[in-house]
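[job 4471] stage=fold_predict status=RUNNING
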Amino acid sequence: MGASYKIPIILDELSGINRIDEPVTGGIPIKKGLLFDTKNICLINQNKIIPVQTQILSRWSDGSIKWLLLDFKTSLNAKEKKKFFLIKKRIKKIKDIEISKDMLGLLEGLILVDNKNKKHCAVIKKTEVETKGSQRTVVKLDGGFKNSILQFFARFNFYPNNKLRLDLTIRNPQAAKHPGGFWDLGDRGSVLFKDLFLRIKMVGEGDVYYKNNPKSKFKKTEDVIIYQDSSDNKNWKHHTHVNRYNQVMHVFKGYNVYEKGNEVLQSAHTQPTVKVGRISVALKDFWQNFPKTIEANKNEIVIRLFPKQYADFHELQGGEQKTHSIFFDFDGNDLDWIQYPLVVASTPEYYSETGAIPYLTPETKADRRYHKLIYCAIKGQDSFDKKNKIIDEYGWRNFGEIYADHEAVHEKDWFLIIIINMTLFMECYYNFLEVVI
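[job 4471] inference complete, writing structure tokens
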């Protein structure tokens, strides 16, 4: 990679939030034959050098780098767009982030409560350092719960400036039975439980603050419980959410806030942050993954990933797993940014030039029909977002899925559904064969 070569990197702040030393992670494609190693690589913005941590994700057939993962930190004002360039330049090596044993010890507060109200403590079985660098260090812990079949693994992402992201995955390793070929809830391979929570105990007492959503101000209190029971969408009790008895167990729309045991607010959607002393905690996509609870008092913070407040047991099917991302700032700073993380991007021309994504070309005026088709999925009444609201495609099991409305025909037209699905499959199959041949 020549010293004069510059790969454009663009960060666009679209959410109206000031970003201060925000950790940024994202991938970028590299043209074939251009870069074979990552020595002496950095970012530059208006002649200012920004240290960057790199990880090679894949290579071209000639051994050159095809996809490169970048980790760095940056500050942006609300609605600001900033352009960087990835260049080859020798800079002073920065010390790797140290692994905090105290932070790894957070899992001592991970507790599972089964359907008989028995508590099961987390047991760590394996610890592995996956990534080590100056901008992000990742430690993976594998474990289970004492006297329970359920397992978990947790990735601790350590960032500069006392920031931590904990990706916690719970899984049911049992096989589902699928009697009669049906994938219904209530399968013999499922596990029912009442609560799964992470308790963070304070060293000494601290002042308690909370906010219901990004951009709002912190409110001081003695204690708080914020519980999201369902979405606030029109179809919040849609049969998408039925349990093993074919019942929807949501009690109310949206979320409630309780202080000193009294309800002080009921509203639609919440992305809360709580702070006790110098520790701020927030859960990514809180309301979308309902039911969810976060609690705080002067002695502790409790994040209930599968909360006891819900009016039913939680069911994890055989082979099913769920990941939650919990963010911590141990300097007590705001965590608004986690709901709208900055996205690493480049120019359309650059992506096309690399050839890493076949047939990808910059938009032109000649593409109006194609442009109109694509934007139907992004904006307007037929967008993915609008369609998801039709069947309330939210909740911890559903969020992230796309409504399969091509199957939304009357059940008497089941033969039409089969024809449509087979046509789509055969089209994809023959396109694949054409590329291979």
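[job 4471] summary: The chain has a mean pLDDT of 91.
[job 4471] exit 0
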